[in-house]
Amino acid sequence: MYDVVIPAHNEEKSILAVLATVLRLPIQRIILVLNGCTDRTLDLTRTIPDQRIHTIYFAEPLGIDVPRAIGALYARSTNSPGVLFVDGDISGNVYAELLDLLTALDEGTDVALTNCYPYITNRAKLAKLVLRFRGNLNKELGYFQTLGNATPTHGPHALSAKALGLITPEAIAIPPLTLVFAKRYNLNVKVATSIRHQDLKSPRKHRCHARLIAETIIGDCVMGLTLARDQEVTRSLEKHKMLGYHPDRRFDLLQLWAESLNASHSYCEKHLIIPRNSDWISG
Fold first, then answer.
1. How many Å apart are CA 28 and CA 25, to the nearest integer?
2. Which residue range or ranges hold the Glycosyltransferase 2-like domain (predicted)?
3. If you compute the radius of gyration of the chain from its CA atoms, what whole number of angstroms results?
């Protein structure tokens, strides 16, 4: 059975709903990656005495997407047959769609994606711009006819053990690069399910956050385009450097985590909370 990685940063309003959905799945382990939480997210997760829940807790924020890579590395270290990624703020009823993603792994898919825009709707100007760059990268990689604008950046998705072994942690932490590496290694990539963006029921964020997220995704796609073309990797778009939240990504902690997993270092142990005999204990 597969593992589920759930990244969460201050998700006390949604984390129990996410866990209630995920715990119904036929999975062997839930890897919660809690980073920089200052609310009750950790306390709430510890009220569920399920042996399958392994928590990785970082007091400091890891930055956007890095928690996915942290969880993926942990899953890989346990020889997981594959991982399903579900963000900790997705409180919608997406059980059937998550099963679709697991089924895709069973059927030999290496990178299973969700189409979060299955219908053409009136979209805000910023959303259209982001989708254009996502589409441009997929066109560059030859994926557009099968994937459209789908990307690991948006919505639940899953990676096979083969993908976990070939795609670098840094590429998982910059989601569009996952597709670049998938193309490089001729992995089997497909859209396995569809969930309308609004049906994810992620909380609405402030306007500044939306702008920074858009800039992050566009910059990630620009990185993917230059990498796919064997050019110098950059986030620059003409005179503008598309940073967004990218500078907050803690690649230093990701590297330290990877090294500690390989060496059974105490750094890894002090961040793990693993249930044993129905009791929660650290490390």
1. 9
2. 4-158
3. 18
Burial of 177 per CB tally in 10 Å (0-12, 13-18, 19+): buried
Distance of CA 68 to CAs 143, 156, 157, 170, Å? 23, 11, 11, 10
CATH fold of 2-118+150-203+250-282 reads Spore Coat Polysaccharide Biosynthesis Protein SpsA; Chain A (3.90.550)
Whether the model clears a pTM of 0.85, i.e. scores above it, the answer is yes
Q: Please say whether the dihedral angle defined by the alpha carbons of residues 23, 26, 28 and 29, taken in this order, is positive or negative.
A: negative
